[in-house]
Amino acid sequence: MASGLTDDELQKLYTWIDEIPLSRPKRNISRDFADCVLVAEVIGHYFPKIVQLHNYSAANSSPQKLYNWNTMNTKVLKKLGWQVTKDEIEGIIMARPGFIERFLHQLQFKMAKYRANGGPVRSAVANNPPPPVQQQQQPQQSYSQGAISPPPPVSATGYDRGALQKEVDEEILLDKEQTIQELKETVEILELKIAKLEQLVRLKDSKITKLQQQVGGVQSN
Known about the structure:
The protein is an all-alpha fold. The protein contains seven helices and no strands.
């Protein structure tokens, strides 16, 4: 499996996340957690003293997602004695299958170890309360039962892997289109710089030619 977890481990992981109040409806775990906002909420649910939720803004763009994850890495995960690699962050941001599950599985272990070592637990929740969960007209969805509505046929873990892959592909396509646009803008800037450099070279050549003509005139006299 992409996450390296068994179906039983995945089911337990989804059930654990379902027990935590989150600010967004549960649709697709890879995309829901890609910008790190819900990761901050999960950690804040257990250890409100080590995470400031206002540091994490909801994001669609890769740069903002990366900023959130870098903040999480340096300000929070480091306190848990752990930091995720650049490749892992990229995989989560791109909503690649299995990356967020593997991260959350490790996070659960690190938080348990942190608590065992005397880390400050959920005693100051009033100073950093969990965000309000959005109300939904339909019955509450969950990752353990398949967080997609209307519910399609799901795998043994309760997740529709076909729909998950489709949404991942769409996310990757959007990121690629954004990257292409950024590259186009970079090319335009470089072309302008090249044009200016060519103009400077022509002016320099013109000055050199005039100087040569003046030197030639002096010598002939």
